[in-house]
Amino acid sequence: MAAESGSKGQPHKSHRSRQAGPSAKKKKNVSSNFDNENLTVEQRRQRNPKAFAFNSSVKAKRLQARTVEKEQRRLHVPTIDRTYGEPAPYIVLVHGPSKVGKSLLIKSLVKHYTKHNLPEVQGPITIVSGKQRRLQFVECPNEINGMIDASKFADLALLLIDGSYGFEMETLEFLNILDTHGRPNLMGVLTHLDKFKDVKKLKKKKQQLKHRFWTETYQGAKLFYLSGLIHGKYLKREVHNLARFISVMKFHASSWRSAHPYLVADRFEDVTPPEKVQKNRKCDRNVTLYGYLRGCNLKKGAKVHIAGVGDYSLAGVTSLADPCPLPSAAKKKGLRDKEKLFYAPMSGVGELVYDKDAVYININDHFVQFTKTDEENEELNRKGKEPDVGEVLVRSLQNTKYSVDEKLDKSFIDLFGRKPNVFSEAQDGAKDEQKSIEWDNEMQTVDNQESGKDSSSGETDADDAEGIESFDQYERVNGFDNMNSTMQPSSSKGGLTEHVEYYGGRMRRKAVFGGDADPGDSDEDANIDDEDESDANDVYGDSENLSSEDNQTSGSDVSDDDDDEGHHGEHMGNASKWKEFLTERTMSRQHRNLMQVVYGAPATLSTSINRGQEHDDSEEEEFFKPKQEGKKNVGEGTEAEDVNVEDCSKFVRSPKSWKERDVVESIRDRFVTGDWSKASLRNQISEFNPEDGNAVFGDFEDLETGEKYGNGEMEDFDKKQIPSENDAVIEERRLKKLALRAKFDSQYPFTFSNNFIIS
Ligand SMILES: Nc1nc2c(ncn2[C@@H]2O[C@H](COP(=O)(O)OP(=O)(O)OP(=O)(O)O)[C@@H](O)[C@H]2O)c(=O)[nH]1
């Protein structure tokens, strides 16, 4: 239309350049830049736009590429890729305190990636998460040794935190352990957030936990929120987001790991010949371990360390077909459903399993037609006939849940060892006041038995009367200067406090950050609306008082201004102090053996028996000890020798310090030969050589000649004190030995070197 009108003679409106606004400004600039008319010659030369341009485009390209390359090299120091073939799956370790939702998260992630429902989480679970990537999910065991092992191989650690409760010691301990091996990628996951009813409080809590998590890890560490459950599973959207993050994450194995071969066994098989086991149940076993090899190559005969078992040499290494291969590279985009493979032999998925010496076909129970029917119906059907013998046998087999071996393995006597479990079983579901008091008493007893150092906070009955479900039993305070909360409680301000309590159906070890500048923790636990959990704040209040007062007060409403200032004034994080409790706790958790149960705790026994005669006895023992034995402690010599022994699993090393006199005493008293009475003097003397009975005080009897070398004085003493051992007996024993030797020589006609003495 415009063109037409133009053609009819109407003149176009002339262009009016902009006078204001950004376009006008821009034009002005451009024109002034290139408006050389008003410039002097000198100025024009200086403003030559081509002065720094490239003459050659090829040269320009090369220079650009070089700059980019230099930049990249600065960012990533090149690492040597020692792997061949497809890269092994990355290990995603799911860590968290008990009942935080580890298994559920693994199940949800597996469901997301593979569309399969995992019945149970046992052992590593390998899945194909993308065209180039496989992941192996491992649930971290909830005990210190398991954590140490797991920290060695994790590529990514998902730290699960119960959002409704806050940080627990397990998480902090694990972070600490990770430091030793080099921290892998870390991600935090908050669960149990559905316990918050108030959105504001939830938001505040999330903020607090995020900042605490950043303090413990690094600024900006990723923290995921799993806001609740639908049909017993985490929300799909949230799992999807988490899965995406894992799928695109960049993994960098530490240089140590990539230079050393290691393997996470996802299956193992005992291939010892059955007849060998039948002959001797404790014979050396041959075990085949299956898993993806990581790091670099592994050779036959190499020495390997099996975590928690010991050092062994490899009898052989075999390369097997990949049980969970990556999809073929030809496909276009994404994974087809049938390529969404997963492999979890210990969790009972994967139907066909090839072993070194067998093939197993796993048939799900619901595919199997069991002949099991009701007993009553059976009676009717049979109509008085005797059941067939074969039928009875088959039925008894069907009814058997565990083999005899398994039953034996599972059975153990554990009277006092695992207090939290005993408690959780006993208290499961029971929240009435009466039971809380019972528990209080029980725990106090156990506590007193266990350690004199840990002071029991002893919740008063008044607390119970108020309906507070705080089961505070004892509190461990880790301060800057001392470890004993009772002695110098004020030192706990700057450190981290472990607070053991019964909460939400289980025992928890809450991490209370005493000197944290972040005030969040102080009132954070009051956030939960759920009435059951309303004690959390009280617990914190208690801990404040307990640590700053005398461990005896239990009220929560006392607040000291000066104290508060002190809290904020001090910086936090004396991690090395709270670490020291790891050993103590691990030792306290060890199962007590039957001997200890029968004879009592070592310290108690020795002190109770020896109280009256301690001084005298110690003097006597010093006197009657063989020369070398007196200086050497019992366990030391063996341990020093065993350090380099190949199969170190055969030597049990106790964490006790055998240098301590009390410990040695306690062992001695376990035997009848202990100093139960002074009359058994002889037994004391022969303690280190119970077979011989006369070879004490460093005496030496030459069996060849029959001559005796020893301390004359001691012999005299021996004869005076113990007239029962006369010369005739000694002579008889010597002759017996000689006869034995002669017999042996006649049977084995080898010549021994002179210094080979058979005794
Ligand atoms: N309300 C709620 N319940 C949850 C949440 N996450 C897990 N649970 C429940 O907590 C219980 C324990 O979950 P698990 O996955 O067995 O926890 P776990 O950490 O594997 O436990 P252990 O293996 O015993 O250490 C289950 O009953 C879950 O349904 C959550 O976010 N909200």
From TrEMBL:
Annotated InterPro entries: AARP2CN (IPR012948), Bms1/Tsr1 (IPR039761), Bms1_N (IPR037875), G_Bms1/Tsr1_dom (IPR030387), P-loop_NTPase (IPR027417)
Region of interest (Disordered), residue spans: 1-55, 424-499, 511-584, 605-641
GO biological process: endonucleolytic cleavage of tricistronic rRNA transcript (SSU-rRNA, 5.8S rRNA, LSU-rRNA); maturation of SSU-rRNA from tricistronic rRNA transcript (SSU-rRNA, 5.8S rRNA, LSU-rRNA)
Annotated keywords: ATP-binding, GTP-binding, Hydrolase, Nucleotide-binding, Nucleus, Phosphoprotein, Ribosome biogenesis
Subcellular location: Nucleus, Nucleolus
Gene3D superfamilies given in the database record: P-loop containing nucleotide triphosphate hydrolases
Record field: compositional bias (Basic residues): 10-29
UniProt main location, coarse: nucleus
GO CC annotations on file: 90S preribosome; nucleoplasm; small-subunit processome
Residue stretches making up the Bms1-type G domain: 88-252
Polar residues: compositionally biased ranges: 30-41, 442-459, 481-494, 544-553
Reactions listed under catalytic activity: GTP + H2O = GDP + phosphate + H(+)
Listed Pfam families: AARP2CN
One function term, GO molecular function aspect: GTP binding
Family as reported in the entry's similarity comment: Belongs to the TRAFAC class translation factor GTPase superfamily. Bms1-like GTPase family. BMS1 subfamily.
Protein name, UniProt field: Bms1-type G domain-containing protein
Organism: Trapa natans
